[in-house]
Amino acid sequence: MPFPQGVGFNVFERNFWKDVYIFGAYVVFNFVFIYACSWFYLQGYGQIKSYFSGEAAQKKKAKNNRADGYV
Q1: How far apart are CA 66 and CA 1, in angstroms?
Q2: How confident is the model over 17-58, as pLDDT tens digits?
């Protein structure tokens, strides 16, 4: 007795839109993940490192001191 087509793979027409949404979420997640990893690799590491190192606080303090002199 032959099985209906797709039963062995759990593929049914009633799940078509659910499967499309899952696939779409997979594609969107991959785009966002690759973009985030690329940004982190190319420039984000330096920005994050300087933010947590105290270097950013020193720059902000120096910028505020310069701004006070012009007023």
Answers
A1: 85
A2: 898 999 999 999 999 999 999 988 888 777 777 777 776 667
Does any domain span residue 49?
yes
Task: Check: CB of residue 52 under 8 Å from CB of residue 44.
Answer: no
pLDDT at 1: 46
Q: Which two tokens stand for residue 28?
A: 């969107």
Calculate mean pLDDT across residues 2-24.
77
Number of domains in the chain: 1
Domain that holds residue 42: 12-70
Q: Is residue 25 part of a domain?
A: yes
Please tell me the distance from the alpha carbon of residue 10 to that of residue 60, in angstroms, as a whole number: 58
Query: Token pair of 66, please?
Result: 């310069």
Whether 43 is covered by a domain: the verdict is yes
